Amino acid sequence: MNEWGTTDVDLTKGKAGEPVGGVIVTPRRRRRVWHVPRTLAWIVVAPFAVWAVARIAGLERGSLPTQIMTATPYAAAASLVAVLLAAMSRRKIATAVAVVTAATLGFSVLPRAIGSAHAASAGRTLKVLSINMLYGQADPAGVLALVDRLDPDIISVQELTPRGVQALDAAGLARLMPHRYLQAEWGASGGGIYARHPLTPVTNLFRPVQHKMPVADVALPGGAPVQVVNVHPVPPIGDQVPKWTAGLDGLPAAAEDTVRVLAGDFNASLDHAMLRRLLARGYVDAADQTGEGLTPTWPANRRVPPIITIDHVLVDRRAGVRTVSIHTVRGTDHRAVFAELTLPTG
After folding, report:
1. In CATH, which of 3.60.10.10, 3.40.50.10420, 1.10.260.40, 3.30.2350.10 is domain 119-342?
2. Which residues are 193's β-sheet partners?
3. How far apart are CA 244 and CA 236, in angstroms?
4. N or C: at which end does the chain have fewer Cβ atoms within 10 angstroms?
5. C-beta separation of 106 from 294 below 8 A
6. Beta strands 154-158 and 191-195, pairing class
7. Are the beta carbons of 81 and 305 closer than 8 angstroms?
8. How far, in Å, CA of 80 to CA of 98, rounded?
9. Count of CB atoms within 10 A of residue 186's CB?
């Protein structure tokens, strides 16, 4: 008897006090395993798969798909979430599609952050600066500070207005870059080329669409002239997509008898089939070669940071790329692109 008036019973012994065999089993609490429904997995995976196919095959058509294609680097990162959800659904096919999709998007984007620069060991150096001035409103003092610091041989200017020309000259650009070929216009259609060395305008090389795209041969010391093309097709917005396509498609291919540089606001990223088609005609993207290919150039000086890369310096494949840097200038919605190139000796 115990103090409560009851009898204690030892469950480990029988009636005669003998030990009783057996094991007392305490059930374990099962861990909750998250399971994603198959339908939800496919809903998440399918859009990325379609995006990957469109990117690789160059299937973007129309205004909205063409604009959305510039977001491919972000889609590549987000596709990893689709891989995780597909794996949690325990559906082998959905998981396989998600993995292939992520790999496809990743391989189309990641090389731009790694770079594959092939700077020539010998040859003349050419420094190119490209800037869109947003209707000529870019801060002239900021532009001059950039020129002083980077010391470019050539400046390719888009959206150059008569007032913008006057502001740049008043700030001192005429002293630093005395040679020029300008086609200034009010609005967004003007363009110009400034150079430290004598230049010769080139006409009838190709037919620009809507915007001015001046071309000039610049007499760089130590060898043959370098040909510079100021690039600025219209943006692929609304019914302007055909003009955008024609503007990029009409740009000249690389030439055997001269080194050609295309610099400007292409209104296109490396995820657009049109720009990749242009590269296939004998060019490389300078930023892509140096690991700066994912550095965004638009929009600048806004509440949101730059998100897409549409300003480029393209150069003949025979040339080398030493450095590329991206710079913000007050008063314009585009960041300036600077490239230091090494020209082939042959």
Report:
1. 3.60.10.10
2. 156, 181
3. 6
4. C
5. no
6. antiparallel
7. no
8. 8
9. 12
Residue 221, φ and ψ in degrees, nearest 5: -60, 145
Amino acid at 39: T
Q: What percentage of the chain has pLDDT greater than the value 70?
A: 88
Q: How many whole angstroms separate alpha carbon 314 and alpha carbon 261?
A: 6
Radius of gyration of the chain (CA): 31
Q: Where are the alpha helices (DSSP H) in the chain?
A: 38-57, 63-68, 72-88, 92-109, 111-114, 140-150, 162-171, 173-176, 241-249, 273-279, 286-289
How is 187-213 classified by DSSP, letter by letter? SS--EEEEESS-EEEE-SSS---SS--
**Distance of alpha carbon 39 from its chain centroid, rounded?**
33
Amino acid, res. 285: D
In the DSSP assignment, the letter for residue 233 is P
Residue 35 has a pLDDT of 74
Report the distance separating Cα 207 and Cα 306, nearest Å.
31
Question: Has residue 139 got a pLDDT over 60?
Answer: yes
Any idea what the Cα angle at residue 307 is, between residues 303 and 310, rounded to 5°?
125
Q: How confident is the model at residue 148 (pLDDT cuts 50, 70, 90)?
A: very high
Q: How far lies 14's CA from each of 1, 9, 315, in Å? A: 18, 10, 94
Backbone conformation region of residue 304, classed left if phi is above 0, alpha if psi is from -120 to 50, else beta: beta
Phi, psi of 311 (to 5 degrees): -105, 130
Residue ranges matching CATH 3.60.10.10 in the chain: 119-342
41-95 pLDDT, tens digit per residue, is 899 999 999 999 999 999 999 999 999 999 999 999 999 999 999 999 888 999 9
- The per-residue pLDDT for 119 is 60
Task: Give 233 or 115, the one with higher predicted confidence.
Answer: 233
Closest C-alpha among 224, 226, 249 to residue 236 = 249
**Tell me, what's the pLDDT at 41?**
87
Look up residue 307 and give its two tokens: 């998100």
pLDDT of residue 1: 53
80: closest CA among 110, 55, 56? 110
